Amino acid sequence: MNRLSIITTVLVMCSQASSISLTHVGRHNSALEERGPVTAEVADSQSFFDNNLKTQSPARDWNSRVDALLKQMTLEEKVGQMTQLEIGMICNGKDQSIQIDPGKLEKAVVKYGVGSILNVKDEALPIDRWHEIISRIQEAGQKTRLKIPVLYGIDTIHGVNYTQGSTLFPQEIGMAATWNPELMKRAAEIAAMETRASGIPWNFSPVLDIGRQPLWPRFYETFGEDPYLAKVMAVATVRGYEGSNISAKDKVAACLKHYVGYSFPLSGKDRSPAWIPEIYLREYFLPTFQAAIAAGAHTVMVNSGEVNGVPVHANRYILTDLLRNELGFRGMVVSDWEDIKKLVTQHGIAATEKDATRIAVMAGIDMSMVPSDYSFSDNLIALVKEGGVPLSRIDEGVRRILQLKFELGLFEAAMPDPNLKANLGTPASRAVSLQAARESITLLKNAKNLLPLGKGIKVLVTGPTADSQISLNNGWTYTWQGTKAELYPKDRPTILGAIEAKIGKQNVNYVPGASLDREINIAEAAAAARNADVAIICLGEGGYAETPGNIDDLALNECQLKLAEAITATGKPSVLVLAEGRPRVFGRIADALSAVVMAYNPSLEGGQAIADVLFGDHNPSGKLPFTYPRYPDALLSYDHKIWEAGDTSFGYTALKPQFEFGSGLSYTTFEYTNLNLDKRTMNQSGEVNVTVTITNTGNRAGKEVVQLYVRDVVASITPPGKRLRRFAKFNLEAGQTRTLSFKLRSTDLSFIGANNKPIVEPGDFEVMIGNLKQKFTLQ
């Protein structure tokens, strides 16, 4: 058995191993646009994971139709299918003035037979414009000899961010903070429905890179630092996008990105080199992709950077040996933007673009996001004619592309359906977005129970993110960088607007104090704080995506820290609200703050959600999906080695984070008791049943996330102090008690050993839930 076949076996065994005794959430009905918020009592991680690997319908066999089409195709037509161009190659103008150029469209689709087009130029478009553009493209496809439809792709990152009037959701890091996979699935279902309603069947999402390098500017696009939490959310997203039939009018093909290792650059900068030992790659970076492939994902996008000195676009081991031969992926692989060219211009592993094309295609690239010229087509045709690339490799790639187009139903119905426009931005979908924003918000500090605030008080609202929809949404919002404020809807309140609506404008004094990167009127803000009952300080980040979001320092900008220091120096109670895409360090002001609320990038409904939490109309239930550092260079994931967590007699000083992974407070209190294991010894084929009792000991209802961790006491590879292995989110009324039951099997105790294979070693293990722990022995 090869190495990742073993991983697959372990994953499948794990998925069969465990369940929770409370009621499991069933599948949704098909009337998606009529469904409101998720009301599930329990979101059980492993039951959810199991059921969403098992709900796929058998794939229809398209082989005969693909074979028949391939036999008719010329080399030029085949290479055309492997070519993807950006929309500017068929249009004139930009933003809202964009117009199809008939000559450019004819050249791309009819002459070159281009198989796919992507992106915007550069703003989100109204749905009617999308229908017009997609229709013109598909009409051109019908003029070709074989009438092959064109596959349009778009980045639906947190909702359909490139269609005006769509429903937007918290960025992935915020969705991870909900610890609610059923809610993630619902959000993905809505995003798929609205993408397909726009006439677009292919979505470049989800991002499955693990967020273990907080400097990385795409950190907010990840599901956080833990492979298990990210794996469950990955399956939720893929199942939401794809369902059991991607040709359905409310489904799209998902694209797993960026395979693999993109999120762990040594420098923290986007698209810069990563150095990841294979044992670490397999332990932390592959599980999300493995799970999403098992859930049926149809496409994969490749890491733009390099891993261990080899650009992934040129790495046959990663793209073919691992992805296809071990992970078992059978779908289509697309490059990222211009990344075959960058094998020459950036990575320097090929002298010419022609040679780079040969290397990438032979490594495993099926479709090249060229995207702004015809060099890929010209070079690949020449390579085949010269014998540099065998025709069999071309047929292999084109087969996967045609298979995807058949599965999407494009040969039967490529045109946008005007009847689907009513599905865009419905009140029910907005309600789900509001629920997601509320459930993501994480209360990290609440000294003397300052929060929730009373509604009859006078407050100062200050800080650069207080009156900014950009900060609530971040990149991939109406434009790539998300920074055009004029494109945001005017009917969604900022944090300031929502607070004013909540307690009355007459009770709110707004003084900006500082922008994101400069002082404005800090002294005035401090003076206003002295006349307020409470100061709400809104700090964080603006909009950014990819490389423009690179930073050199994880600390909050100096002007923002100075503003907070001036406010807290007044002695008035102060609440810090963080709207940010990564954990910007604020350790020097942390002790002086009365409360800290982490909002992430909660979307258009985020202002309302934050106000609801601050003033007690919603009880916060979010939990951190990453470790929040105390110092810019003290970066530590929760699953560190035990010896890293304590001071030593020989001068080692422990790294103490600002806030732990999985932490998050509530306006009620929960007590954990009676952690029990049904046996103290277990054999390799057995299982241990873990039960724990949770009581809401406060005076109001609240949702709690029960987190089950396992520690391997002794292992041949130094074991982490703990690893997340199960979680469940559920509501408890005041005074209510419930007992949960989880099952663990030996495969939950596995790790990647020194030979890069999963291994389970006999010995002692600790199970930890809350502040409780119990031990058992694996024989």
Tags for this entry?
single chain, 779 residues, alpha/beta, Immunoglobulin-like, TIM Barrel, Rossmann fold, 6-stranded mixed sheet, disordered N terminus
Structure description:
This protein has about 775 residues and is α/β, with parallel strands linked by helices. The protein folds into 3 domains: about 5-10 and about 670-779, Immunoglobulin-like, CATH 2.60.40; about 75-425, Glycoside hydrolase, family 3, N-terminal domain (TIM Barrel, Alpha-Beta Barrel), CATH 3.20.20; about 440-615, Glycoside hydrolase family 3 C-terminal domain (Rossmann fold, 3-Layer(aba) Sandwich), CATH 3.40.50. About 30% of the residues lie in helices and about 20% in strands. It is built from 23 helices and 29 strands. Strands 1-24-23-28-29-21 form a 6-stranded mixed sheet. The protein has a 6-stranded mixed sheet with strand order 14-19-18-17-15-16, sandwiched between helices. Strands 7-6-5-2-13 form a 5-stranded parallel sheet. Helix 3 (about 65-70) crosses helix 16 and helix 8 packs antiparallel against helix 17 (about 425-440). It is globular. The two termini are about 25 Å apart. The model is unreliable at about 1-35 (pLDDT under 50).
